[in-house]
Specification:
Blueprint (H helix, E strand, L loop, with lengths): L1 H5 L4 H18 L7 H9 L17 H20 L10 H9 L17 H4 L5 H21 L3 H10 L3 H25 L1
Helix pairs in contact: 3-4, 8-9
């Protein structure tokens, strides 16, 4: 059974599960998103005394905290006990392009799982990596608040509800991702 679960699955299975979650959330009157949990946590901690933004009924949103906790636990279980014994398969053209930028891709599990380039995220002795992590985190935090939600909230929940603001946000996310991947990261690396 573990061998069956840990093998790569077709993308349509996760797509179908997202549809099921969205139908259940819509039926229950909830919205899917991760970034709203920070507002809920701050409201739980009493931040409503200092800002109107945090004056919400946080008890009605605890289901989303359970979702986030389950996501973290599920991610840990999947990475520790259900991970495929092979590194992530990456196209040869992508490997060649990454190599021109100085980013190696693993050929064996002993070299890493292949999701996060070690040269960028794990070598914290380089100031440029600190810069990328800190500035990237600030931009994500600011962008999430400015856009009124995170990528998952807009792309899944907002588009499912046919919200124009979510469509504009998702187009912006894609443009930003393309600029980052093809212009900013090559210039930095």
């Amino acid at each position: 059974m573990i061998d069956y679960i840990s093998q790569p699955w077709h993308w349509s299975i996760s797509g179908a599960m997202i549809v099921v979650v969205m139908v259940l959330l819509t039926w229950a009157g909830g919205r899917f998103g991760v970034s709203s949990n920070l507002q809920t946590l701050c409201a739980m901690g009493g931040a409503g005394k200092y800002s109107d933004y945090f004056r919400i009924d946080w008890k009605s949103k605890t289901w989303n905290l359970v979702f986030i906790a389950a996501s973290v636990i599920g991610g840990f279980i999947a990475s520790q006990y259900l991970a495929s014994p092979e590194p992530v398969e990456i196209a040869e053209a992508t490997k060649a392009h990454l190599l021109t930028l100085g980013v190696n891709t693993p050929e064996a599990m002993s070299e890493g799982a292949g999701f996060v380039p070690e040269e960028i995220f794990w070598d914290i002795s380089k100031p440029v990596n600190w810069f990328l992590l800190v500035v990237g985190g600030l931009l994500i935090g600011f962008g999430t608040r400015y856009a009124g939600g995170c990528t998952s909230g807009h792309a899944i929940s907002g588009l499912a509800n046919l919200q124009l603001a979510s469509l504009i946000a998702v187009i912006g996310f894609f443009i930003g991702g393309l600029l980052s991947a093809w212009v900013i990261m090559p210039a930095i690396l």
